[in-house]
Amino acid sequence: MPRWVQVAVLVVLGLSIRMIFVPYPGHVVDMNASADWSLKAAAAPWNQVYESTDANYPPASMIFFEAIGRIYHAWAPANDNDFHLLKDLVKLPNILFDLIGIVVVYALARRFAPHLSALGAAALFAFNPAIIYDSAMWGQNDTITTVSALAALMFTVWDRRALAWICIAFAVLAKPPVVVLVPLLAIEPFTTSDPAERLRRLRGAGIGIAIAAVLGYALTASFYTQTEPLAVIGRLIDWYRIGSALYPYTSANAFNLWAFLPQFFLTDATRVLFFTLKGWGNAAFVILAGALYWHYFRTRTRASLIETAYLLMLGFFLVLTEMHERYLIYALTILPALAVVNPRYLWSTLALSLTEWLNLEYSLNYMWIKNDNPPGLDPYAFSPVLARLCAITNIAAFGVGIVTAREVDAVKSRPAQAPPAEQPAVPQSIKTRA
After folding, report:
1. Could you tell me the pTM of the whole model?
2. Residue 144 half-sphere exposure toward CB, CA atoms < 13 A
3. Are 56 and 243 in contact (CB under 8 A)?
4. CA nearest neighbour of 62 among 75, 76, 72, 48
5. pLDDT band with cut points at 50, 70 and 90 for residue 345
6. Cα–Cα dist 90/29, whole Å
7. Which region, left, alpha or beta, applies to residue 132 given φ > 0 means left and ψ of -120 to 50 means alpha?
8. Could you report the per-residue pLDDT of 184-201, keeping only the tens digit for each?
9. Which residue(s) pair with 323 in the sheet?
10. Which of 52, 141, 311, 336 has the fewest Cβ atoms nearer than 10 Å?
């Protein structure tokens, strides 16, 4: 069977599994919000979407809500009073990017491994229960962002830097967490000592940045009534500033470092010594990210680029406050391609897939407890042992990644040893002497 057919079969199987979960109600609050945004966005002119909805997603995500609403208006049966078709449509863009992700993981892994290993990495993504849960059951659009960011890494590894910058720009305009990968792509052209190669890389990155800026402006401006460049940029920056502070808590059910506090949803404005908890988390991540950027600049390999991106996204989830349970998926999307680089990452993929799946299930139970108020259950701390065991597992996976990265760095920086001195030739007469 040709290789492309095997990848296509994997995509079809991934789609088949996901379609099973489409009828499930998922996260009711998120699904209702997405459905409402879709209907209101389709009912208003393109440039008045934010004025007509309470949507808190950036413009690249709003493209899909707008399209979903317009398709629903064109196809909806008259008796769809419960909006079943609309809620099914909300999940389809997520599933589409899941399928694109299967191909991207395969293409990225092929850079480091033979076909069968790369196909196995793609299968780790295709059948990953946490990724399926997030997109096809919960109904969240996280993989639109994560797969776009993964595509940026893939194009960088494949020396297509213009496409890489276009993909990372789209990913940031869909959801902002992947902005921490932008400095990584900016460092990449300088990880070669060949001036001609460095210039070629910078030229490709510059072209990509220019195209991404133009396309990003056109996309963003189409959703705003004021289309002057400064007004568009200012409004977009203001949105990110507001969006980054929507949930002023230590953790919104995320199994990370903050899960060891007495409960979730504690205010992160609490001061400890000279800083708030949010300030401590931000400072810790800045230090961690700086160390990881420096690690990549030292190692300068394509595999290290992917490895550092994974550690950045996992560190982002573990250290920062105001973190959602779903944001572990940003690291989990990158991991399957790393599984072909080092077997440790295969075990990390399996471990984080389990903890993320449990984290998503925990959050659905949180929603049920909070709404129904069953006696004896605290929605903010109803399973502390599970939460902390999963948090320990996530932290351990980060530790494994750091150890592996340090080993690569040590090998890279180790001075080359001189070859052993040649032994003097033994005269033939001595060899034959009795």
Report:
1. 0.90
2. 24
3. yes
4. 48
5. very high
6. 13
7. alpha
8. 999 999 999 999 999 999
9. 251
10. 52
Q: Which residues pair with 267 in a beta bridge?
A: 249
Is residue 269 classed as helix, strand or coil in its secondary structure?
Answer: coil
SS3 content of the chain, % helix, strand, coil (to 5): 75, 5, 25
Burial class of 37 by CB neighbour count within 10 A (0 to 12, 13 to 18, 19+): buried
Q: The tokens of 217 are what?
A: 């402006």
- Is the pLDDT confidence value at 203 over 80? yes
Taking residue 137's Cβ as centre, other Cβ atoms within 10 Å add up to: 22
Are residues 110 and 337 in contact, defined by beta-carbon separation less than 8 angstroms? no
What is residue 410's predicted lDDT score, i.e. its pLDDT?
56
Instruction: Count CA within 13 A, CB hemisphere, residue 136.
Output: 24
Residue that the structure tokens 């925990």 belong to: 362
On the CB side of 403, CA atoms within 13 Å amount to: 10
Pick from 351, 343, 334: nearest CA to 407: 343
d(CA 124, CA 348) in angstroms, rounded, equals: 12
Q: Token digits for 273?
A: 């010594």
- The pair of three-digit structure tokens given for residue 402, joined into one six-digit string: 């750091």
Is residue 66 a contact partner of residue 46, using CB atoms and an 8 Å limit? yes
Number of other CB atoms surrounding residue 49 within 10 Å:
24
Min mean pLDDT across 58-62, 73-77, 367-371 is at: 73-77
Determine contact, residues 264/250, Cβ cutoff 8 Å: yes
Q: Give 117's pLDDT tier (boundaries 50, 70, 90).
A: very high
Q: Report residue 239's pLDDT band, with 50, 70 and 90 as the boundaries.
A: confident
DSSP character for 133?
A: I
Matching residue, tokens 């993504």? 125
Nearest to 97 by CA among 41, 163, 4, 171: 171
Consecutive H or E run containing 324 = strand 323-324
Sketch the domain layout of the chain as residue ranges.
1-245, 247-412
Residue 402, number of CB atoms within 10 A of its CB = 17
